[in-house]
Write a structure and sequence with these properties.
heterodimer, A: alpha+beta, three-stranded antiparallel β-sheet, 3 strands, 63% helix, globular, B: mainly alpha, 81% helix
């Protein structure tokens, strides 16, 4: 039984939701987001997934970004923060997420 | 920074060459920042970092895939076709049109002028008048004015035909360009 294909399909839309939710609480930089997601095996994804996804969210106007110096000797970090559009998008996603969870619960019990 | 990591970044940068330079620099800086975090926080070696980030071509491809959605891929293609078309039409307008149109008008005008001049010469001879500003010459050979008139008519017809041909090419070329333009804009 190979469940990986299904998992990656589930992950695709969920990641976007999780990343936006994470950034809505506080500004985050890429490595931080990666590490946070890695705590959850179902959500852990490669750099080649997360960084391009962040860039798309940026281009679509849901996120904004700024470079900020970190500790001495380290290169600056690129921080992402929520835009008003992003918050609206996240609110709409949350509603749909609730609908989905309820539907899955109703079907499987 | 480690030379392997720099080489990796160079490769990604090269695969992203269709992107604007500023955007490319931003992407490369962000990957570089991630590399340094992996090196300092996770204590990974350059080899492990490269293994983790994966094939540079794939990483660049993921950026291109996310940034070029289906609709913009179409417009990028459209842009290419537009550029290709206008450079072709542009070169055509630069060289073909001026040459054929000037030749066309010039030849046709000469084609009419030659028999008129021949007629003047022949008529002048008929009434016993020398017309020095009209002469018909093939190198050193100057035919009798009557014969010169015949020649001038033949040359006139040839010149006019050449002019007409050039004019036809001009018209066809203009039609070709506008037709292509219309088809291109009709599709897009």
């Amino acid at each position: 039984m190979n469940i990986d294909e299904w998992k990656s399909q589930i992950r695709r839309g969920t990641l976007e939701f999780c990343i936006l939710a994470m950034i809505s609480n506080q500004d985050r930089y890429g490595y931080e987001i990666m590490s946070e997601l890695e705590k959850w095996p179902i959500l852990s994804a490669k750099e080649s997934t997360i960084y391009p996804l962040l860039r798309r969210l940026l281009k679509e106007g849901f996120l904004s970004s700024f470079w900020q110096d970190s500790a001495e000797g380290l290169p600056p970090r690129k921080y992402y923060s929520m835009t008003e559009n992003g918050r609206e998008y996240l609110r709409a996603m949350s509603v749909e997420w609730e609908n989905l969870i309820n539907a899955v619960k109703a079907m499987s019990t | 920074m480690n030379e392997y990591l720099n080489a990796y970044l160079d490769k990604v940068d090269r695969y992203l060459k269709t992107m604007p330079a500023s955007e490319r620099a931003d992407i490369i800086n962000e990957i570089k920042s991630e590399m340094v975090e992996l090196e300092t926080q996770d204590q990974l070696t350059p080899g492990q970092i490269i293994e983790r980030l994966g094939d540079p071509k794939e990483l660049a491809g993921a950026y291109l895939g996310e940034s070029i959605s289906k609709s913009t891929a179409f417009s990028f293609k459209k842009l290419c076709s537009v550029v290709a078309f206008y450079s072709f039409a542009g070169a055509g307008s630069l060289f073909v049109l001026p040459i054929t149109s000037v030749l066309g008008v010039g030849f046709m005008f000469s084609g009419i002028l030659a028999p008129v001049a021949g007629l003047i010469k022949a008529f002048g001879y008929l009434i016993g008048m020398e017309v020095p500003w009209v002469s018909f010459q093939f190198g050193g050979y100057a035919p009798h004015p009557y014969l010169a008139f015949l020649f001038s008519v033949i040359v006139g017809i040839l010149l006019f035909a050449a002019g007409w041909g050039s004019w036809k090419i001009t018209v066809k070329f203009v039609r070709f360009i506008t037709k292509n333009k219309f088809q291109k804009s009709a599709y897009n």
